[in-house]
Write a structure and sequence with these properties.
- The chain has helices at 3-8, 54-60, 103-117, and strands at 11-16, 19-24, 28-34, 37-42, 47-50, 66-70, 73-76, 80-83, 87-90, 95-97.
- The protein is α+β, with helices and mostly antiparallel strands and 118 residues long.
- The protein has a single domain (3-117), classed as Beta Barrel (OB fold (Dihydrolipoamide Acetyltransferase, E2P)).
- It has a five-stranded antiparallel sheet with strand order 5-4-3-7-6. Strands 8-9-10 form a three-stranded antiparallel sheet, with no helix packed on it. Strands 1-2 form a two-stranded antiparallel ribbon.
- A hairpin with a 2-residue loop joins β3 (28-34) and β4.
- The chain is globular, with a radius of gyration of 14 Å.
- The N and C termini lie far apart (30 Å).
- Mean pLDDT is 90; it is low at 1-7.
Length: 118
Amino acid sequence: MDRNNASQQDSIEVKTPDGLKVICIKNILYVEAAKKCSIVYLYDLKTIITYHLLKWHEKYLLNPCFFRCHNSYIVNCRFVDCHCNNCITLKDRIKIPLSRNRVRTFKENLKYLQLKLN
């Protein structure tokens, strides 16, 4: 998949233990690193194990909607409910760690996303 096409796409194709699977980008809550693979958490609380590193997901899940808030997490900023200096809380009270080195950039990203959506 071409990165330029990814910005226009509303889904991504991932490698899973069951084969290739297409995921709607809007349904992704967050992605968590898990050794040499990653776990995609969806809005309907389903999970998908993928054979991709978090770096691969970061390439196709673009800012401002998605943000790498920690070495092990990428969050969908559309589902952010609130945040403090070390934690992001998503709509379903799911807590995701926020790296202190990325707090300022995360806040800027949220502001930009709000401007873009309005």
